[in-house]
Amino acid sequence: MPVKSPAECNTIEEIRAEIDRIDRQLLSLLGERFGYVKAITRFKKTEEDVRAPQRYQAVLTQRRAWAEDEGLDPDVIEQIYKDLIAYFIAEELKDLPKASVNPQ
Question: Model's pTM, two decimal places?
Fold first, then answer.
């Protein structure tokens, strides 16, 4: 199916088809990102390594800036990334050796 710009779409169905195409690409990219998230656990040994608070904050700050560059609401994008990162952190923690999660 050829890609149409929003201005080239003549029906609601064409617009919805393009939105669906873009959503599929977004999900594919999230799957690709998840592959890298899983791979990075090879280099992380502790829960603190996984949570990486400085990196977390840097990612949120950068994504807010990128959102502004794209004309998107940075608060909305930040919340999306907080949810996404929380999910990925939970998945990373599953791959850590049990002894390193919440050490006593």
Answer: 0.85
